[in-house]
Each structure stands twice: as C-alpha cells, then as structure tokens.
C-alpha cells in the first residue's frame, strides 16, 4: 500500500511540473517565424548608394586604368571615389549593411537589379561594401552574398523566376525609380520606392520596413 501511494504521489508531482497542452501550444506559436519575401532585389545607383557610376565620366582623369572598375577607390566603408578624378564619387547609404544582413538572416535571397550599364563597376563597388554574413558570423563583401545579379526589367525578373522557381508574389524590389513599378503591374513583384517623404532618394531602414509591410499586406499577412 505504501509503494502504491508513493508511486501515485510521484506521478502527480511529474504531472504538475509538465506544462498544460495550451501552454505548449503558446510556446510553439510564440516561436513561429514571420512571413518574409523569398527574394529581395535592390537597385544600385541612388538606392544602395547616392550617386551614379557613370561610364562616360569615371576613369577619364590622369593615370586612369583601362578597365573602368579598376578606377573605383575605397576611401571608407561609406565612401568610394574615382582614382583618376576625385570629383567622381558615391556615398553608400548608412543602413545598407543592416538591411542586407536582415535579408539574409531571414533566409531570403539577395538580388542586385541595377539599371547601370556597367555590371563590372557595380560589382566592384559592391565588393568594397561589407556586412556580416549571418550564416558564418564573418564579415564579407556584399557581392559575395548576392544570389542573382541582373539588370532591372521585366525580362530579367522572368529569368530570376525561372532560376529560383519562386512566385513573383514572393519577390520584393526596392528601387528609387518610379518607372520600375511596372514589375508589380506586369508580373506581381512587390515594388517599394526608395524615396522618403521629402522625395530624397536612397535605401533606409524605414523604407525597407515599409517594403516588407507592403509585401506582407499584399500577401494577406498584415
């Protein structure tokens, strides 16, 4: 009789220590990840950085290198200039590294969809811009973290769609040019204009969050 009583008390003690079914459900729900685009595409000129990598102006000064991209000089983490003519420069927007880190942290693919005619110049500039790779915890050049490197227009989003197999509705484009909103009208890619309330161009954390909210709303999550 003593042994039975002891066992029953032990069972009761264990049951009291276990959370109820509703508590377990609450824990699962609290750790559920928020919906997020599968691909986030960023423009370069006047979105990632302020300024234009103009092929007709860069690399035209004294001692210029034959390859235009070799004339891009690192000054600091937010400032690049033309070695041959310091009047040519671009300023990397302050929140870019934070935005790219957040994109990758949520498991999304990063796409670069620049209107700039020189992929080589854009790639070199992106090489100098670094952020933390959430997968490794190491600092890496953004260009090494890019999954899709294209020129922004409807046909190239079709190529990204073909390679990734992602629905257009699972993509978000952030760009300073209003004309590129056509990807939303024609394909269903969510478009976020990279301009603030004063029409100042450039990617900021606030604009990025606006884009995410607009995407979630379009998917019925917000």
From TrEMBL:
Keywords: Signal. The keyword DNA-binding does not apply. GO terms for molecular function: acid phosphatase activity. Pfam families: Acid_PPase (PF12689). The keyword Signal applies. InterPro entries: HAD-like_sf (IPR036412), HAD_sf (IPR023214), MDP_1_eu_arc (IPR010036). Residues 1-23 form the signal peptide. It comes from the Eukaryota. This is Magnesium-dependent phosphatase-1. It comes from Crepidotus variabilis.
């Amino acid at each position: 009789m003593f042994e039975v009583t002891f066992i029953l008390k032990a069972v009761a003690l264990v049951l009291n220590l276990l959370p109820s079914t509703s508590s377990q459900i609450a824990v699962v729900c609290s750790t559920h990840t928020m919906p997020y685009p599968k691909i986030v595409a960023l423009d370069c000129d006047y979105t990632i950085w302020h300024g234009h990598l103009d092929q007709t102006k860069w690399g035209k000064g004294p001692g210029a290198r034959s390859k235009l991209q070799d004339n891009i000089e690192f000054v600091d983490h937010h400032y690049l200039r033309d070695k041959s003519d310091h009047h040519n420069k671009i300023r990397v927007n302050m929140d870019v590294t934070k935005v790219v880190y957040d994109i990758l942290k949520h498991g999304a693919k990063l796409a670069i969809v620049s209107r700039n005619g020189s992929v080589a110049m854009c790639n070199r500039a992106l090489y100098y811009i670094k952020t933390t790779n959430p997968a490794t915890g190491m600092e890496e050049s953004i260009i090494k973290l890019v999954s899709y490197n294209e020129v922004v227009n409807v046909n190239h989003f079709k190529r990204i769609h073909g390679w990734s197999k992602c629905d257009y509705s699972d993509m978000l484009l952030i760009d300073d040019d209003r004309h590129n909103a056509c990807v939303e009208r024609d394909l269903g890619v969510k478009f976020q204009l990279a301009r603030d309330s004063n029409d100042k161009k450039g990617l900021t954390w606030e604009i990025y969050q606006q884009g995410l909210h607009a995407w979630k709303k379009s998917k019925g999550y917000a």
